[in-house]
Amino acid sequence: MVILAHRGYSAKFPENTLKAFKKGFEYGADGLELDLRLTADGELVVIHDEDLQRLFGVQQKIRELTLKQLRKYSQDGETIPTFEEVLSIIPKGKLLNAEFKEHEVAEDAIDLIEKHGLVESTIVSSFHHDLIARLIKEYPKMKFGFLIGEELRDNPIELVKNLLKHNPYSMHLPHQLADYPYYFSIICDLVKKCGAKIFIWTLDDLQEYERIKDRIDGVITNEVDMFVKHLRVEA
Known about the structure:
Layout: E1 2-6, H1 18-26, E2 31-38, E3 44-46, E4 51-52, H2 53-56, E5 58-61, H3 67-70, E6 74-75, E7 78-79, H4 83-87, E8 95-100, H5 106-115, E9 122-126, H6 129-138, E10 143-147, H7 156-164, E11 170-174, H8 181-193, E12 197-201, H9 206-212, E13 218-221, H10 224-234
Parallel strand pairs: 1-2, 1-13, 2-8, 8-9, 9-10, 10-11, 11-12, 12-13
Antiparallel strand pairs: 2-3, 4-5, 6-7
Helix pairs in contact: 7-8
């Protein structure tokens, strides 16, 4: 079972920071999950939100600020890192799940992944399904996954069937889907039949994990230490 640290070890350390990522590895995660956006001056930075309101109480969008301006803000002394800074600290053998929050990050981010020799150990995912479908065709040597969320409320089975036609490496499903066993079972069967991996986000509940562990390949969690300890005991 793959354990990916959601925005790093974000249950205990400032999310999407170098400290959170280093601590994720230190506490035994198999890899990282992170989010990518572009600054006003075209720098790739690691941050989830499109603005600074939630983290810093500032009503400024990431795309309106330069990297230098963003560096003025910090969480417990940790500033917003660039993608290249994060890539430079990933240990050999560890995994990366890079979520593209915007279409515009794609080419530059993939160039950096290739530059750091991390193609084999990286999964690129996004809620922008059209983007992932395009990238699957353009970069056949890379691993791409469809992130699915609210879209499942409409016609979940047909949605998954249509996405699987693009032959993704993985499907990233919300943990809430397991609350609907009928749909969860059918969707997992569809994904496995196509040979794709299943990652569940964002799973912080061990009881829920125990219910679905036989159907999935990995968890994306804030609670890195808890999951690592549980899986080691289980093994």
